[in-house]
Every structure is written in C-alpha cells, then in structure tokens.
C-alpha cells in the first residue's frame, strides 16, 4: 500500500503539468479553484487506497495523473454548465410542469430583455415625475381584456389564493365544495394554502356531489366567502354534481357582505376550439366578486397569479402587507404585459402555448419528415414508426382533453428503449421523450423546427 501512496503525484507537480495550465486557460478556471479540485482528487485516491477500495489497474504515477486530469476535465465542464438549463421537450405535453410550463412569445422575451438591461418606470410616473405603483403597469391591460373593475398580479396563483383569503377571510369561514379541493402536482394542496391564510375552511358536500343547499346550510354570521375552485387538475367522471357559479352568486346576494370567489386555475381569455375552460370575462359577468388564475398555464405567459374583480376588494388586497411579500418582479410584468397585448392585438397564435395547442397535424407531419430525413443517413440500426397518438395540455389544464397528434416510435436494434430514453435525456441539450409500453415516443408538437437538428444530432450520436 505504501508503495502506491508514494506514487501519488504532489499538488505542486500537478500544477506545473501542461494539462493543468491548458485547463486553466481554456476552461477559464481560477488557479485556486483548480488547485482545490486537484487536491480533493489526490485526497480521495489516498483515502481509497488506505481503505483498500482503490480501483485495480491505476497504480503508477502516470496512471494517477491521467486519472486526476480526467476528473478535472469533467469537473471543469460541469462547472460551466448552468444548473438551470435548456431542455428539448419531445413529450408533446405543452404546459409541462417539470419543464417550466409555458414558453414565452418572442415579443415577451424582447420586453424581458429590454427591462433587464435598462432602468424602467417600474414605480415611477413619467408624466408627473412622481413615485408610482408597479400595480399600475399591468392593471389597465388586465381590466381591458377581462372587463374587470380592477386587477393586480402576484407571484403565482397559489399566492393569489393565499392573499385573497388572508385579506378577505382571515378568521372567518370560507365555504368550499369537497369535490373541488384539488391537489396539484408535488404536494400543493389548495386546502393547505387556505388553512395557512388563517381562513377557516368549511367543506361541504361529498367528493362527487355538492348541492346548493349544502352551501345554504353552511352559511352563518362567520361566513365571508363562497369559494369555487375550478377542478382543472382532475376530472370527476360519471355521477357528479357541482353548483353553478350563477347560483352561488344569487345565494351570496341574499346575505350581507358575502363574497363569491372563483379560483380558475388556468383561466382562458377567449373561447378555445378545444376543451371548455371557463373564460375569465364570462365568469366575471356572472357577478363573481373576485377571480384568480395563473399567468403560465393556458395564458402562455410568465409565472404569475392574476387577480381580477371588484375595485374595492382589489384595493384591499393591494394595501395588505402580504402584497409586498408576494409581489412580482419587473421582468414578470414585462413578459405579462407583452403576452396579454398579443391577445388584444389578435396575435395570440404568436404565443407558443396557443400555437402549440392549435398546431395542425399537417405541421406535425412536416416536422416528422424533417426529423426522419435527418436520421436516414444512419437508418440501418434505427427504426422509426409513425403512430397516431395524443398530446396533453399539462399543468393541470383541461385534464380530460387529449389533442390528436402523430408520434414517432423510435427503436434501435441493439439498444433498449430505456437506454435510448436515458441517453437522450443525458445529452446536451437534454431531450425529454415519452417512455410508454417499452417504447420511446417522440411528439414533435412541442419541438420547434429550429430544435429538430438537436434531436437528429442526439440520435445520430447515441
Ligand atoms: C394551478 C392551480 C393553482 C396554482 O397555480 P400556480 O400558478 O401554479 O401557483 C391553484 N388553483 C388551481 C385551481 C390551479 O389549477
């Protein structure tokens, strides 16, 4: 053992090695950092030798050096790779929660960059030369598109739920149907958020049936809100009954100070050809006092929670201390304003989420042809089969809705589906595909034409 330890290179010799110098220069790593990594590798080898766990075959001075430099090379590469990085989404799931939900429109990206690079009037009224409010940046455009009296934006829709209940129902009762208490991805439960707000949750009805009289019977002098949650994350199929918004509004009117709040989750700004997500302006027309929805679901904008409704209520929310805690950044406002302007100008097909949802099969077929043509030079080992399939919206939006698509089932004569799936994922950029029934499926609905070469390249280099 001692003999091997003696062969371990000293740090000052590693530092003098040409490979060390080249790494420093080529990968732009500081002397201190690279020395630290080299020392760490030397120490790890020493410990492994002493513990008798060192790998066979690497025992000479030269072997040790080669091993250390291989490690340093790998470390330098990962050091420059950002933790948050680009992924090619070949799953066809448009609002993939794990992959960052909505992609922004070019106009939104332009505004984000402009706002990031320069000073802006975030809290400054240019016309008057006085301090302004960031709420003003986005309010008029939101009221214009939804017909609401007033509007504001917070960090996300979960924050919107929290702020609304905290401000308008703290220590009071909020009546909500059991069938609507949804769990959304990860560990987010709407009921937990409600409890955190300090509002007392009063669940009525059963998971599949809630009637108007369930709400009626639950109302007392402590009740402040009748809440409706749009159950977008799952679909109760079959024998179900929920109470329509109009009826809740009518019931609330019979009581003093009773509000109706609808958490739409996704919230469409216009009617869609597919699915039947409620349209925000229509929900407001029914007389609902306050509505909240996400900025990065169906809307196709940045992560945000949008709150619209009666002016008096929105003013209360804006003035609550928690509004400061939950407020959004200027880049979010820049992206949101540009996205909503896209709708107002009738250019919603420029918004990637909308474009991808409405993408015709002919366009998907065109992408498939480009993709398969690119592989053909090496098609001996690969097999590509085009099948009919379905794309999902994702993000808990329109759960029952499946959009017809075409998928490419990719297989190789020497690799298992799992191996193909893993190698595509571990490449650069990472490519996420669907692994279903031991088949790798590629849905090009969510892969732009510019991204197809990455896919071809990745497959040719597996
Ligand atoms: C998605 C969703 C939320 C949470 O919205 P985020 O923007 O993800 O915070 C809350 N309520 C409902 C009904 C939802 O669908």
UniProtKB/TrEMBL annotation:
Pathway linked to the protein: Aminoacyl-tRNA biosynthesis; selenocysteinyl-tRNA(Sec) biosynthesis; selenocysteinyl-tRNA(Sec) from L-seryl-tRNA(Sec) (bacterial route): step 1/1
Keyword Signal among record annotations: no
Reaction catalysis annotation: L-seryl-tRNA(Sec) + selenophosphate + H(+) = L-selenocysteinyl-tRNA(Sec) + phosphate
Gene3D superfamilies: 3.90.1150.180, Type I PLP-dependent aspartate aminotransferase-like (Major domain) (3.40.640.10)
GO BP terms, alphabetized: conversion of seryl-tRNAsec to selenocys-tRNAsec; selenocysteine incorporation
Subcellular location: Cytoplasm
SUPFAM superfamilies, per database record: PLP-dependent transferases (SSF53383)
Sample GO molecular function, one term: L-seryl-tRNA(Sec) selenium transferase activity
A single Gene Ontology CC term: cytoplasm
Domain of life from the UniProt record: Bacteria
Main localization (coarse): cytoplasm
Entry-linked Pfam families: SelA
Keywords associated with the record: Cytoplasm, Protein biosynthesis, Pyridoxal phosphate, Selenium, Transferase
Ribosomal protein is among the record's keywords: no
InterPro entries registered for this protein in UniProt: PyrdxlP-dep_Trfase, PyrdxlP-dep_Trfase_major, SelA-like, SelA_trans
Enzyme class: transferase
Family statement drawn from the similarity comment of this UniProt entry: Belongs to the SelA family.
Function summary: Converts seryl-tRNA(Sec) to selenocysteinyl-tRNA(Sec) required for selenoprotein biosynthesis.
Name recorded for this polypeptide: L-seryl-tRNA(Sec) selenium transferase
